[in-house]
Amino acid sequence: MAAYTLPDLPYDYSALEPAISGRIMQLHHDKHHAAYVAGANQALEQIADAQAKGSYATIGMLEKNLAFNLAGHVNHSIFWTNLTPGGSGGPQGDLGRAIDGEFGSFDVFKAHFAAVATSIQGSGWAMLCWEPLGQRLIVEQVYDHQSNHVAAAVPLLVADMWEHAYYLDYLNGKADYVAALWSIVNWPSVGERYTKAAAAH
C-alpha cells in the first residue's frame, strides 16, 4: 500500500513574508502538516491490520482518524500551492468571470470569503470550491479538516484558519491574517484548479 508523503514547499520558508513569517511556515509545514501525513499513514496501517485479523471493533474510529488526517494532508497540500511570494493580483480569465458571475464582483467574493473564514468556531478552513452538481462556485466553512464539506465539491482556494497557521504572527487577529493572505494568493494556480475541476464535471 502506497504511503502518503510530505510535499516540499514550492518556495523558501521566509518567501511569504511579511504576510506569513518564516518561523510559522517552518513549524506549519515541518511539524503540523507532517503530523497529518504520519497520522494518515498510521490509520491506513491500522485499518489493514484490522482487515487482516478480521477484527472490526475499532474500525469506525480508525476511519474517522483516516478522514481527519488525510483531509489535513490534502488541504495543506492545496494551501501551499495557493500561495506565492508577492502574490499575483486577482483572478483572471474563466475563474475571474466565474467569480463575477456567482458573487457579483471580486470585492463581494472577498468579503464573503473573509466573513466565512473569520467566523469559524474553533479550528477549520475557508474554501472556495467548485460544486459539480450545481455547476457553480460555492464558499464553504469547513470544521477541523473535513466536517461540513459538501460531498464532491472540489477545493480551489483554501485558507487555513487553525491557530497554528497565524497565531505567532497575528495573535487573535484573524481578520488581519485573512487580509494579508490576499496579498500572496497564487491566482494562476487557483485558476488551473478551476479549469480542471469544471472540465471534469
Can you put this structure into words, describing what you see?
The chain has 201 residues and is mainly α. The chain folds into 2 domains: 21-82, Fe,Mn superoxide dismutase (SOD) domain (Helix Hairpins), CATH 1.10.287; 93-200, minor pseudopilin epsh fold (3-Layer(bab) Sandwich), CATH 3.55.40. The chain is built from 7 helices and 3 strands. The protein has helices spanning 22-53, 59-82, 93-103, 106-118, 167-170, 174-181, 187-200, and strands at residues 124-131, 136-143, 154-160. It has a 3-stranded antiparallel sheet with strand order 2-1-3. Strand 1 and strand 2 (136-143) form a beta hairpin. Helix 1 runs antiparallel to helix 2 (59-82) and helix 3 (93-103) crosses helix 7 (187-200). The longest helix is centred in the N-terminal third of the chain and has 32 residues, at 22-53. The radius of gyration is 18 Å and the shape is globular.
Instruction: Please state the second-level CATH architecture of the largest domain.
Output: 3-Layer(bab) Sandwich
Structure summary, number of beta strands: 3
Low-confidence stretches: none
Tally of separate helices: 7
Oligomer: single chain
SS class: mainly alpha
The average pLDDT is 96
- As for the number of domains, it is 2
Can you identify the CATH superfamily of the largest domain?
A: Iron/manganese superoxide dismutase, C-terminal domain
Main pleated-sheet profile:
3 strands, antiparallel
Question: Class of the largest domain, according to the CATH hierarchy?
Answer: Alpha Beta
What integer value in Å does the Rg equal? 18 Å
Q: Provide the spatial order of strands within the biggest beta sheet.
A: 2-1-3
The name CATH uses for the topology of the largest domain is: minor pseudopilin epsh fold
Percentage of residues in strands: 5-15%
Helix content: 40-55%
Shape: globular
Order of helices and strands: HHHHEEEHHH
Query: What's the end-to-end separation, in Å?
Result: 29 Å
